[in-house]
């Protein structure tokens, strides 16, 4: 991949491929651009946990083991398809899901149900 073009609403960012970076300064500039985008994606993903907390009727539905394994299986398949280290993808995703569930519990507990 020569570059990655990322867009969120009217924001459009072009991130150069790692091999196109000749200095650490250049390389870190591209990482910073990617990280800004990743943070926005994480925030957007977390908004679905907030909505899930509203949609789930009972607290014991917040943690759904079957769904966790389905998400991880999907990610592992996607990692294979794009050539990303599967163990890396799984570890990152299991952490992300645990943090997401913590957030969802927080939102669920703050809502009065029934
Ligand atoms: C959003 C959900 O809630 C939790 C969060 C998940 C996630 O981060 O993908 C997966 C399973 C759930 O325990 C859901 O049930 O789909």
UniProtKB/TrEMBL annotation:
Example GO biological process: chorismate metabolic process
Keyword terms of this UniProt record: Isomerase
Pfam families reported in the protein's UniProt record: CM_2
SUPFAM superfamilies reported for this sequence: Chorismate mutase II
Example of a GO MF term: chorismate mutase activity
Top-level taxon of the source organism: Bacteria
Residues covered by the Chorismate mutase domain: 18-108
Entry keyword annotation includes Isomerase: yes
Keyword check for Repeat: no
Entries under InterPro entries matching the protein: Chorismate_II_sf (IPR036263), Chorismate_mutase-related (IPR051331), CM_dom_sf (IPR036979), CM_II_prokaryot (IPR002701)
Entry EC number(s): 5.4.99.5
Alphabetized PANTHER family for the sequence: CHORISMATE MUTASE
Stated name of the protein: chorismate mutase
Organism: Emcibacter nanhaiensis
């Amino acid at each position: 991949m020569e570059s990655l073009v990322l867009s969120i609403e009217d924001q459009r960012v072009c991130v150069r491929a790692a091999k196109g970076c000749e200095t650490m300064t250049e390389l870190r500039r591209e990482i910073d651009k990617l990280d800004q985008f990743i943070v926005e994606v994480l925030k957007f993903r977390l908004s679905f946990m907030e909505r899930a907390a509203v949609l789930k009727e009972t607290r014991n539905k917040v943690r759904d083991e079957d769904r966790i394994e389905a998400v991880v299986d999907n990610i592992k398949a996607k990692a294979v398809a794009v050539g990303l280290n599967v163990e890396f993808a799984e570890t990152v995703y299991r952490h992300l899901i645990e943090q997401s569930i913590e957030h969802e519990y927080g939102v669920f507990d703050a809502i009065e149900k029934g």
